[in-house]
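Journal club prep — side note

Before the paper discussion, L.F. wants everyone to see what a predicted structure for a comparable chain looks like in token form. Sequence:
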Amino acid sequence: MFVIIGCVVVIACVLGGYVMGHGNLSVLFQPAEYIIIVGSAIGGLIIASPPKILGLIIKGMIGMLSAKSYMKPDYLEALMLLSDIFTKIRKEGLVSIEADVDNPEASPIFSKYPKFLKNHHAVALVTDTLRTVMTTSISPHELEALLDNELEAHHEEAMISSRSVNNMADSLPGLGIVACVMGVVITMGYISEPPEILGAHIGAALVGTFTGVLLCYGFFGPMAKNLEVIANENKEYMNVFKVGLVAFVGGAAPQIAVEFARRVVPAVVKPSFIEVEEAIRKK
């Protein structure tokens, strides 16, 4: 939603300022320039991206429109989930959560946290880690290294969309110059025409440079940054589960392991110690 609002603000401010300067909006309507710039940018993206990468880019761009930042309730929910899991293991043993891990959607523990269940990577991270702990004698430092590698691999994949869109944004000013030069070439064919006709063709050519720069810095550049922020937020959210699981496997009591996880929550959305303690008491 905020992406759409931002795009509307950019368009309104640019066109509004242009009209305030007594500009003619019809001059900006140059479909040929748009085809050259946007079409070339998309073509370059296709050249640079295998089909798998194109799928990730499309998925990232669509997800960007509905993506929501992780807020304090989301992190509090994650901490409560860890508390439930650790408490059950401490009371009933590691085998007691086997059914929960095998079928999270039907689990009495996981089903209490619908937002968590919607995050398929978070569910896979927690359940796969618990399976590993149940079936092997992995040490805490080995488990931490394993989870670090998984999180890094997932983050690198999530960053593909951002980097690809950013590369496309970087190409747009250059493609705008290409469109402008081609417009100038066409204008040369009207060099003997009156100044008003010649000026109209020159203005149409300059729209190419304007369009390329605007698309780069007003739209696709900020979109690439938005995708990067989403990827970083996902990594921060996953890190909470990693730290809590490693602490518990290392021998920490459930409440201490949850506190380890709470300490790595970003400060701006971090629940306080008292908020977490009160939430655990209510449960």
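L.F.'s comment for the group: Residues 72-155+233-282 form one domain. Keep this in mind when we get to the figures.
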